[in-house]
Amino acid sequence: MGAAFAPVTLAAAPQDELEEVVITATRTSESINRVAVSVSAETQQSLDQQGIQTIADLAAATPGVRLTGFREASGSTTISIRGVTQQNATTPTTGFYLDETALQKRAASGFGSQNGTPIPPLFDLQRVEVLRGPQGTLFGGGSEGGTIRYLQPAPDLSGHSGYGRAQWNTTEGGDDSYEAGAAFGSAIIEDVLGFRVSVFKRKTGGYIDLSSWRTGQVYDENANSGEVLSWRTAVAWKPSESTKLTLSYQRSSDETDHVGTGYNLDEPGQLRIPSTCFNIPYILSQPVASRAFLVPPMTLPAGACATNPAAYIAPGYTVGPFNLERFQSLAFGPSPTRTDLDIGSADFQWDIAEGVQLKSISSFVQDLGRGSSPQSFPLGLYILPVPGQVITPGAPTINVSTGSNYNANVTASTNGLGLGAIIQPNVENRRNVFSQELRLTSTQSERVSYVAGAFFSNTRSGVNQNATASDLGFKQFSGMSIAQRYGVPFNGYFSQIHESVTDLETAAFGDLTVRLNEQWRVNAGVRVSYLSTSFEQSNFGPNSGTTSAGQATVKGVISDTPVTPKVSLQYFITPDDLVYVTAAKGFRGGGVNQVLTSAAAGFLANYALTTAQMPKTYESDSVWSYELGGKMRLWGGRAQINASIYDLEWSNMQQAVGAGDTVVFNVPSVRTRGGDVELTVRPFQPLTLNASVGYIEAEYTSSLIIPGGPGSRSGDLVVAREGTQMPQPAWTYDLGARYDLQIGDFGKAYGRVDYRWSEGYDIAIKGTPGYSPDSSPLPARKNVNLRLGIERGQLDLNVFALNVTDETAGPRSGGRSQCTNADCSTYTAYGFGQTVSAPTPRQVGVQVAYRMK
């Protein structure tokens, strides 16, 4: 092996060698090339010059990382690493840290819960570290697939430093965007007292044009605009040579006028819904639970009710066709959001002996997410006694068996736009976290080194959701008021959800490294945790057929004692060349499923199932990772290659199913296999090339199928099917090149190009209710960014173009779903009007950055 990986011995000038980044991924400072972890690291300067300004940009440039959700601080972001994905209403799988403070967040239940991890902007960072693979030993619960760390500059205790950045850009088809930020740090008393402060603001120009599905006309132009504001202050005090206290407080806010980024494609077809009779006397004779989804004889052909004066005959109507401009979104109204995030920490370091440091980290996190989203889903919860049709010239007719969420008979709405938004959830998602960690660390220069500590966290989360409703809209739909249809008085709301969750975690951990000789190291560690989760949710109102919290409340307490070991064997071929093999375990806690409402009852009726047959709780899950990796510094320091292959065995995986309401199941087993390669080469001084490649193959290795009841219209409810691939791209590439040109004594010019590509895949699992052959297949996506700049001293001025080719591929929605046979020639639901959530369109702009050291 030593000969196979021996570096090429070519002389290289010092300026030709690649820079090394020192990281703290193992809770000690060490070169990234000497750490037996698959990790990517970028400095702030590197992030700026690659155009990485958001967590979405970072995910696209890092192998094995995938992002779902919207903007950074919007409280809607979830991150997966190596295919270990967090789903709705489950606990996080990726740890996210700002310095030593964990920000990852449990996802709440409900139909508009502002879920996701609130993430501060990428500004004034010392570096970003992305650790791939379970990090359960040192980072605990929630780092099941990996960990991302934003590390900020410490306050200056000697001299001073600063950083500033400003940017303006245009967006194809939308408004301009701009941002500006500044940071400064200085010693107040040399070597004793210092500070660092920063402030940052970003105004994002929108490009989505909300449009009426009645007329196709725009009523809210560039609706998805937003604003981010963040500031931080930190003070460090070093009263003695062996002690230092750092206090830090940071606040960020993200406000978005409309959080969606999807828009409609042209629709040449016309949806035709025939006149339908709602057989009100028969409907009201049925139990309230059976009225959630109206089926014949609750609905009848219009002619069958001609002599029934108590019935309601809804007129037939048409929707479409639509000849739309790009970025037009047929929407019931805007969906605004705002998230506020406060983070405070006290970090005390004590060098208690030579080579031994004790560290205490006390942190608090407060975040509050607010949002509202107009909805119309009750309009689709009935069977058409005479199927509707989509008529498209020159194409086969498509039959539609269920109601459409676009209902021309409904003109009343909760937001006053008259587009049929008969429900509007208004959500507040609040979290308060206190954590304390004590950590004892020895120096890495000794033959035996260690990290040991204890951890405690108390997380209290609360979600309040008030879904207002239009009683007139319900009457226009079916001839019944909300009180009639759902059997309880209507008090202005369709649903009230109040959810309270307390997560307690206590842990002790240890990590030991033994240097057997100059070439061999053995590392082993273990973390023992105790988790306790108490959950209480009330979900009452017409949607639940109840009038008070006491009638519709779920409570539960679950606990677990996970043990997460790790062992690694490392061989240093040379001081710069490493081969390692690692086995590590990660975990995340379980939870309690939400109160199920009429939405779930209506969905499950398609399978002849009831809400009582759904699980009340879901258990914790865990991942065992087996990894073989290597890090080689070649060509006299002008090339670096880091590579790894892995096998992840995921047990008891938490799988969320959108069953009207979200229900979380535990799938017995999932396997993920893959690898990642990162290569940087400087063939000669002006030119630097970089490439990263990721491959993931994730599939269910067990099935979980709930048999449908007698007379099921949709067969069995498939949660997971053995052999089915999980929804994510198999291959991802990130290729980059930078060329520097010295301009005498003035400075240097540079040019940079980055190309990112991800393979197409199905965004929903075949055989499950959410799969649609019309919208689930996602084509391959690519992105090209260009940047030209001049560096003079600490000043960097550049122009850039992002998404140069203006790519439009993205996840789609609409078409057939709830397929009842293999080719989906028969299906239960059809969504008229296909949408696409494409990348941000082409942007062109200018950026200036200044670094003062």
In short:
By secondary structure, the chain is mostly beta strands. The strands form eleven sheets. The chain has a 22-stranded antiparallel beta barrel.
**Overall 3D shape:** globular
Indicate the radius of gyration in whole angstroms: 28 Å
Number of helices: 7
The SS-based structural class is mainly beta
Can you offer a commentary on this structure?
The protein has 853 residues and is mainly beta. Helices cover 5% and strands 54% of the residues. It has 7 helices and 51 strands. It has a 22-stranded antiparallel β-barrel. A 5-stranded mixed sheet has the order 3-8-9-6-7. Strands 22-18-26-27 form a 4-stranded antiparallel sheet, with no helix packed on it. A hairpin with a 4-residue loop joins strand 37 (621-634) and strand 38 (639-659). The longest helix is centred in the middle third of the chain and has 8 residues, at 471-478. It is globular, with a radius of gyration of 28 Å. The two termini are 43 Å apart. Residues 1-13 have low confidence and may be disordered.
